[in-house]
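Suppose you are handed a protein chain with no further information: no name, no annotation, nothing but its sequence. What can you learn? This example shows the usual starting point.
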Amino acid sequence: MQTRLNSILKEERPVKQRASWRQYLIELERGFAQIIRSDSVFFFHTFCLTIVLTCSFILGLSMMEWAMVVLSCTLAISAEMFNKVLKAIWDNLGHHFSEAAQNSIRIGTASATLTLIGASITVGIILGHRLWELLH
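A reasonable first move is to predict its three-dimensional structure. Written in structure tokens, the prediction is:
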């Protein structure tokens, strides 16, 4: 009886292959969940993004202003994600490279910071201008 039970448990069940678009969506969701859980910086970015989108909605931005706000926020978060990937690669494979290769981490961090500053200024100008129009 035990042998039969072991053979039943060891049988491989057929694994359903998901459609490629569905698998892509699953990987997308897992990636976002992992990045938000693994780094408090991304939780802070998500919090700030929520504030920016709420203020944009309350101030009643035009379609062009919405496009610029969304593009700025998306660009800043993407740059941070690429920087996180670069750091993860360096942490796992960095011992194979020379110390001079660590410049790539510094450049990636500078790039992400510059993108974040540019996005913040752009969003600040848009929201500030709209607030100025509403108050005057």
